[in-house]
Amino acid sequence: MPADSPREVGERIATRRRARRLTQTGLATASHVSYATIRSVERGARRPSDDVLEAIAAALEVDATQLRTGYVGTERRVHRALPELSAVIAGYDIPQGPSTRAPDELADAVNTAVGWRLAAQYGRIAAGIPDLLRDAIRYAHTARGAEQQAAARMLAAAARTADAIAFKYGEPDLSARLIDLMRWAADRVADPLVQAAAAYVRTEVFFAARAHSVGLAALEQAIEAAPAPSSRSEAAARGTLHMRAAVIAGRDANVGSADIHLKHARQLGDQVAREGVYLGTMFGPDSVRIHEVSVAVSLGRDHVDRALRVATEWKPPAALPAERRSGFYIELARAQEWAGLQADAFESLKVARAAAPQHTREHPWAREVAGSLRRFHRADVESLSHFAHWIGAV
Predict the structure, then answer these.
(1) Hey, how many other C-beta atoms are within 10 angstroms of the C-beta on 257?
(2) pLDDT > 90? residue 18
(3) Does position 194 have pLDDT exceeding 90, yes or no?
(4) Rounded CA gap, 53 and 6, in Å?
(5) Residue 320 in contact with residue 275, Cβ under 8 Å?
(6) How do beta strands 276-278 and 281-283 pair?
(7) Residue 50's pLDDT band (boundaries 50, 70, 90)?
(8) Residues contacting residue 216 through CB under 8 Å, at least 6 positions apart
(9) Which are the contacts of 72, defined by CB distance < 8 A and separation ≥ 6?
(10) Upper half-sphere CA count for residue 36 (Cβ side, 13 Å)
């Protein structure tokens, strides 16, 4: 696939800079890149090196893939981080001294990393997650009294953030170990909300193994164990489990269970009333709508109309996290391709890429749809071929 021109990269950087209300001088200061380089790059007179691009992306708080389409530095950074990540959690149950960060500093760092996960900024996660997870493990061992629950929640959130890159970049064994770490953190303090979050993430193991029936049983067991939805956090914890149960029931071709869990998720979404991040998971009425499409696509081709109907009536608002918006359009693209709406499917894939490039690039369904469209769809062949090359479908 042809690389973006220097002018295209420069225009994206300038647009992002203005959106953050930064001057070129301000961006130079924040990125530790010279003003002359920033000015030259934005004019399109110079193609930024990978190091310069990463520095500018960090200052703009975006992933570098959002500035240069063909950028592969994120993959390199993630794969470099995975062995260290594996070493960090090898002895998570063995105390190894105090955290290098104060509790408040650690909490801020974990919240920032969760934000990166929701925004699908995997390169930024990879750069810092080994050290962050190490500190979270140490704090979980040393926290006392009332701090123990907060420490367990921080550790679970850090482990889940690490799992985002392990799972998406093809390391299922590491992903399973990180989920075990989440469960260990939850069980240490018997925190039912963290236990619910761990059960939600654990479903990845069942998806990967195509063990849908046992995955549904595990989620239904977790729903039974979850606290009554008397608060917004408790309603969200139970609602997220119902959302995921609906999807895995769909993969199991269990229409009845899928519809029942989706109904409960809707009710709990209405109870929560507004979208929010609850122990690392986005939940609310909009998230439930997105899962309605997920369920329809999981049920297969005979249920395409359900997915298309949702998309006709509703689109995910820009305020939703990039990863979730990208996932909606990837699954919609699959439904559209099944329905013979190839041009619409390609448009949905492009919207997914614009929202979260790296999430789209690593999503197997996006790759599958792009490959199918390239083989059988003749409109806009050159653009579609470029997209297929970018996503690795050829």
Answers:
(1) 17
(2) yes
(3) yes
(4) 12
(5) yes
(6) antiparallel
(7) confident
(8) 245, 248, 249, 252, 254, 257
(9) none
(10) 0
The H-or-E segment that residue 283 falls in is strand 281-283
Q: Which residues pair with 277 in a beta bridge?
A: 282
Reading the block at residue 293, the tokens are: 């499409």
Write the CB contacts of 374 (distance below 8 Å, at least 6 apart in sequence).
384, 385, 388, 393, 394
| Contact present, 306 and 296 (Cβ < 8 Å) | yes
pLDDT of residue 51: 80
Q: From residue 89, how far is each of 77, 167, 285 by CA, in Å?
A: 19, 15, 35
The alpha-helical segments, DSSP class H, found in the chain are: 6-19, 24-31, 35-43, 50-60, 73-88, 103-118, 122-142, 147-168, 172-189, 192-209, 212-225, 232-251, 255-272, 285-299, 304-313, 322-338, 342-355, 357-362, 364-376, 381-391
pTM to 2 decimal places: 0.84
For 359, the token pair is: 């999430």
Interior/surface letters 73-86, b for 16+ CB within 10 angstroms, e for the rest:
bbbebbeebbeebb
Task: Return the structure tokens found at 81.
Answer: 């981080």
Q: What is the DSSP secondary structure assignment for residue 320, as one 8-state letter? A: S
- State the first-to-last Cα distance of the chain, in angstroms, to the nearest integer: 11
Domain boundaries, the chain: 1-71, 78-190, 191-299, 323-394
Closest CA to 114 of 52, 64, 156, 73: 156
Q: What is the mean pLDDT of the chain?
A: 92
Give me the amino acid identity at 267: Q
Spell out a b/e string for 298-336, using b for 16 or more CB atoms within 10 Å of the CB, else e.
bbeeebbeebbebbeeeebeeebbbbbbbbbbbbbbbbb
* 8 Å CB contact between 248 and 203: yes
* Distance from C-alpha of 234 to C-alpha of 171, rounded to nearest angstrom: 31
**At 312, is the pLDDT very low, low, confident or very high (cuts 50, 70, 90)?**
very high
Confidence (pLDDT) at 1? 45
CATH hierarchy code of domain 1-71: 1.10.260.40
Residue 252 CA: distances (Å) to CA of 10, 211, 323, 353? 47, 9, 24, 29
Q: Give the three-state DSSP class for 276.
A: strand
